Amino acid sequence: MEILARRGYQSVNELAAELKVSDMTVRRYLDRLEEKELIKRTHGGAFAGQEMIEVDYRIRETVKRAEKEAIGRLAFSLIQPGESVFIDAGTTPAYLAYAIDDTKRITVVTNSLAVGRALENKTNVQCLLLGGTVHGTTHSVVGPLAEEAISQFRFNKAFLGTSAIDLVQGLSQSNFEEIPVKKKAARQALRVIVLADSSKFNMHVTFLFLPTGAVHTVVTDSGIAESDRAALQEKGIEVLTTS
Fold it and tell me: What are the angstrom distances between the C-alpha of 4 and each of 18, 46, 63, 169?
């Protein structure tokens, strides 16, 4: 735990080499620490709690992968032919892009390099990538150019990711630079749809960017607590869960 707290993500091989034990021993103890909710496991490694926000995109993409894939498929079913949508940066919104096929003619605006790559060869999808400063950790485009560009669009739906959901205060983000684009996308959309796996609920990270009152729909997995579902529905927010 001290190593993970100091360095963030570490692979099983790295931990085994430093601790001079076998990979199997490392995996066994990582499993026990995860059961106590002291660390988070990924495919091939682990990180300590909030260190997730600093972990490289490729690592974060593997966390809750099955849940994110299912969320992406469910989110795609909400898009109607002919619609214009915004897809946010982040690993969960990226799985919406991976789920998009050529059965619907739609327009997608995004500040995510991952979303742009996923859609570049879709013949029925017009994908518009915002310009601006590339943020390497999140594979996103941020800054004044991106913020000015997004204000020119109107969206049927904006699909937003979030680092954490506080049922009282709202949505928060660990990366401050992405917040202006998120906020403008929400303002430019008829419906705001949040894509978040159930582990994001009742967490707190640094920067609030959207109150729950600005959200119309939350798409999450079946692990959401019934109390969280009820709290959202009491606020008039539609809650859709994967099977």
Answer: 12, 8, 16, 30
